[in-house]
Amino acid sequence: MHINPSVGKPAQQRTGNRALTAGLLSIIPGLGQLYNRRWIKGILFLSVAAVFAATLLVPLINGFIGLITLGDTPDVDDSQALLVEGILSVLVTAIAALFYAVNIADARKDAQLHQDGFRIPSIRESFHNSYDRGFPYFVVVPTFVMLTMIVIFPLVFMICLAFTNYNLYNSPPAHLLDWVGLLNFKALFTEAVWTKSLFSVLSWTVIWTLVATTLQIALALFLAVMVNDRRVRFKRVIRTVFILPWAVPSFMTVLVFAAMFNDTFGAINRDIFSHLGGFIPWLTDPFWARVAIIFIQVWLGFPYVFTLFTGVLQSISKDWYEAADVDGGSRWDKFRSITFPHLMYATAPLLIMQYSYNFNNFNIIYLFNKGGPPVPGQNSGATDILISWVYSLTFNENNYKMAAVISIIMGLLVAIFAFYQFRRTRSFKEEGMY
């Protein structure tokens, strides 16, 4: 007499066995779906896997080999091309691994539905259900794939360069690149020239970011509060004039200021300080060059912040100020307890982005004096910030390895600072409360 081995076993155990079988068969994509009698889906998974194995398996293996070795024969193997192909192989493999995981999960899910007695939806029903539940993913995934190739791929390539010996004297394809581990990072913090340049540029970058951004915010706050005063007339005209520096392209403004600050023929020295019997070396003295750049950034940056503050000030209810008047509050009390908290709460994320933007504000540094004047014993200029120093190392000295190392440090600093500041803002803390 034949006895069904599944009789008497718990349904959960039988379900688990069927799901396990489907998962094991899905080691070859599509077989698990065929086991579940999902013929169309199984054929699709199997076809995609077969096409992938036939067309991409060998190139991916070669890509991984090239990524490890970076070439064997100079003038024949291009280490840079092999590095690119290797990174692409890693990204494609990650996508294939995701497809493989989806294939196994899909087979196990259908097996459990079948064993539990539920009807397995058709291909059309599955598509409609997935579209209804996962519409945001259908919209986000194409953009995510594009960002992966446009943003993540160059970022990974740059990170890889930081661990190679890629510079002017070792450029492929005439030479082969080698993986050097953390030697570039060690050189940055141990060799005198690099250490002096790094700490000089890093300290000036921090000073530049804090001073220039804080001054432009303070100036914008002062002007916005003054113009918003009910005693001021012609508010529209005044606000229009204050916004004009923002309307003019910034590169034109910087070039005009570079000519005005010129040591010899600049209008500031010739028409102002010459009558006072003075002369200021705006472009040749490190201190005065930094003062000039901070002044230009305040001029360029305050109109945007002024516009933000003006919009918030107009949205604050007048009833609060009237209540403060009834309680006998002074102008300072009203500013401290009503105006300033509302301004900071509404604009804090944007103000933080102003600090992050100025940390990487390449245009003003390069257009004003290209990071000069030069400093003895350094391979960076007196007004170079990290981003302009990276540009100089990349395009002027072709020192790609050290430029990549500094870029990694710069990215970490910006990310840590922005994340820390966002976490401290009230708008971030209260985001999940509603």
Description:
By secondary structure, the protein is mainly alpha-helical. The chain folds into two domains: 11-181, no CATH class; 186-433, Orthogonal Bundle (MetI-like fold). It contains 19 helices and no strands. Helix 1 runs antiparallel to helix 5 and helix 4 (57-69) packs across helix 5. The N and C termini lie far apart (66 Å).
Task: Give the topology.
Elements: H1 11-25, H2 31-35, H3 39-55, H4 57-69, H5 79-115, H6 123-133, H7 135-161, H8 183-190, H9 192-228, H10 235-247, H11 250-260, H12 267-273, H13 286-315, H14 318-326, H15 331-359, H16 362-369, H17 386-396, H18 400-424, H19 426-429
Secondary structure class reads mainly alpha
How many β strands by DSSP? Answer: 0
Query: Major β-sheet, in short?
Result: none
Number of helices: 19
Distance between the termini: 66 Å
Range of helix content: over 70%
Rg value: 31 Å
CATH secondary-structure class of the largest domain: Mainly Alpha
How many structural domains can be distinguished in the coordinates? 2
CATH topology of the largest domain: MetI-like fold
- Give the overall pLDDT as a whole number: 84
Beta strand %: under 5%
Function: Part of the ABC transporter complex MalEFGK involved in maltose/maltodextrin import. Probably responsible for the translocation of the substrate across the membrane.
Membrane topology: Multi-pass membrane protein
Family: Belongs to the binding-protein-dependent transport system permease family. MalFG subfamily.
Protein name: Maltose/maltodextrin transport system permease protein
